[in-house]
């Protein structure tokens, strides 16, 4: 049914038959959702009803979509003035009263993700990344330092998901005596739908047992409606907050930048910029990252999922699309309120197919927070230094941020002054390092990497204490072999392979 409907709509306007089919799908979905709500207690049913209303809107648009959401021929590079170099914004300097600007800011961290890809249970933000500090610890330290330094009160807002909310709230107790007010709200909980029937696979509203795989948090584009539904949006506006700085909690480079904040606050009222997207120059590692384009006279975020297959290589080219979205965003709170009230936020739907453990094919309908850029007035990009994009998605990223390449100060990581060039080494660790616990067990301590350019490690490899890596180092233990790099070893431009066991005598 799903294929017949979508296949037909690709051909142009909806026929009467297709329209009937669409209505049937929507009515069936509505009945199923009502049946699910009847299994919930009163409080849960109320919040879930709001979630389901959002889901039904998304589902309606999903059925309406006719083909790719962009016409390739209409894509242009953004005009020069719409993506400003960071240096130009920094050159303005800072006003004497930067604390006045800070008093109008709140920091929002996207905290809905689990650490499963790194072999951890619970919220990803609770993984230790540096000196026993978690992502959340570092975030709190950064904002507390800001509040103390400028005698201000920038609150921290965490957007949790139903997966991370309970564990995160337990941990928040430990920050009670820190100088930072912490608020949380939950992003929506949406039902995964069967790819064939387009109906929810959930049997009831529970999120565990047979239902564990039935629900999902619908991508960070959900921030606008869930923030509004939570009442927190209005609370912050009442407190005089004008902007939020939004970023992923696992991006350790996403600190509050005073120059960008000042730029926002210094615009004339009628030219107020309502949305800034921080972008940075693409390298070969970032070819899949979303990019800013000009489309129908608006700045727009183009994600790889929206690109017609024939143009994917062009999209990945570093020459045509030179920048990508870091997902560090500065957004006007009154503008969010206005667009929510008018139901005017237009974000492309990302259809995310999944295969569950039992082999069932489902789809998740998602949106991305940056995709709303086209709905805001005077939106712009700022091309920031690469140091503002330091995500930790894998154990290879974790090795970099735990090493002496970075210095830690008040929760912020900065590239060590002792490193002679500003780019980070390219690190590829094999599958034996994927899980954090196993990764940690393979290092007596983290090697000296100040002069490293490239590291590839594959197979059963361990590192002794005080190892130093320089230039290009490749260590490959074949299946059945093991390599122990001895304590104090210095490897410079070396390939190590075969079997190397260091036995204690």
TrEMBL record:
Pfam annotation, one family: UDPGP
Residues annotated to bind substrate: 220
Xref: InterPro entries: Nucleotide-diphossugar_trans (IPR029044), UDPGP_fam (IPR002618), UDPGP_trans (IPR016267)
SUPFAM superfamilies attached to this UniProt entry: Nucleotide-diphospho-sugar transferases
UniProt-listed Enzyme Commission number(s): 2.7.7.9
Binding locations of UTP: 124, 187, 219, 250, 393
Keywords for this protein: Nucleotidyltransferase, Transferase
Keyword Protease: no
GO biological process: glycogen biosynthetic process; UDP-alpha-D-glucose metabolic process
Transmembrane segments: none
Catalytic activity: alpha-D-glucose 1-phosphate + UTP + H(+) = UDP-alpha-D-glucose + diphosphate
Top enzyme category: transferase
Keyword Ligase found: no
Pathway connected to this protein: Glycan biosynthesis; glycogen biosynthesis
An example Gene Ontology molecular-function term: UTP:glucose-1-phosphate uridylyltransferase activity
Biological role: UTP--glucose-1-phosphate uridylyltransferase catalyzing the conversion of glucose-1-phosphate into UDP-glucose, a crucial precursor for the production of glycogen.
Family membership: Belongs to the UDPGP type 1 family.
Subunit structure: Homooctamer.
PANTHER family registered for this protein in UniProt: PTHR43511
Name this polypeptide is given: UTP--glucose-1-phosphate uridylyltransferase
Organism: Takifugu rubripes (Japanese pufferfish)
